[in-house]
Amino acid sequence: MKETLKALLDLLDLEQIENDIFRGRTSDEHRQRVFGGQVAGQALVAAGRTVPVNRPVHSLHAYFLRPGDPLVPIVYTVDRVRDGRSFTTRRVTAVQHGKAIFTLSASFQIVEDGPAHQASMPDAPAPETLPDSLTRLTPLFGRRGAEEFVNRRPIDIRHATPLTWEAAKDPSLTTPESKVWLKVDGELPDDPLLHVCLMTYASDMTLLDTVLLNHGLAWGDKRTMGASLDHAMWFHRPFRADDWLLYYQDTPFAGSARGLARGQVFTRSGELVVSVMQEGLIRVSD
Known about the structure:
CATH architecture of the largest domain: Roll
Number of domains: 2
Mean pLDDT: 95
Distance between the termini: 43 Å
Strand order of the largest sheet: 1-2-4-5-6-3-9-12-11-10-8-7
Number of strands: 12
Radius of gyration: 18 Å
Shape: globular
Strand content: 35-45%
CATH superfamily of the largest domain: Hotdog Thioesterase
Low-confidence stretches: none
Order of helices and strands: HEEHEEEEHEHEHHEEEE
Largest sheet: 12 strands, antiparallel
CATH class of the largest domain: Alpha Beta
């Protein structure tokens, strides 16, 4: 197991400091703010620990209110909104320096049968045929820069479509959609909540890139800045985050300094397991 994945699993193992109150560590002092996927993943862990294991999460809706401070822990308070016969609802508030930085509402449901259909999985090359992130990023940032970028990531990501930095250099590569294979870089235990929380973490890594990819922009191009504003996910079926998953993403709209991105996550066998929506702040200067 990659050391960065071990560190991420430690981050998701929250400390319970009181009934329905948890504390999560932060780890990346190199960032200006805490990575949004980490906060969302930790908040879902806090909610899930107050729900019976026979009620898996089926949806979450979250708002990023303030940048998280990467130098201090985050306290998560859980509000037990409802415990019904079939559904359980939790609201989580993440607090730093006495102020809310993030809120999440999550709904859990007992397993039930019903009508079933799904969208078709888009065509994409197999992940084994695609270059890894280190190979893909080295021509852009040099070997050392690519290694520093990749070594901080606990997720193995293989892009089947252009990277934002590639499209920023070559306008012919701009596109409103992105196809990414991803999986955590190691083998995980059989804890369904852990796999869901890791997918929540990973879902924030490339989603807003789709907005930039459509306009020939890239993070770090000295004129583009952005941040996640809200995030929603629907979990349709069980899955494993340590198996390859195809993350198909597109952007239906951008305007008013905001961009909307949506994603669908498929297993290799073609099952749609997760749907994602996110709106982000996108500001471009001259």
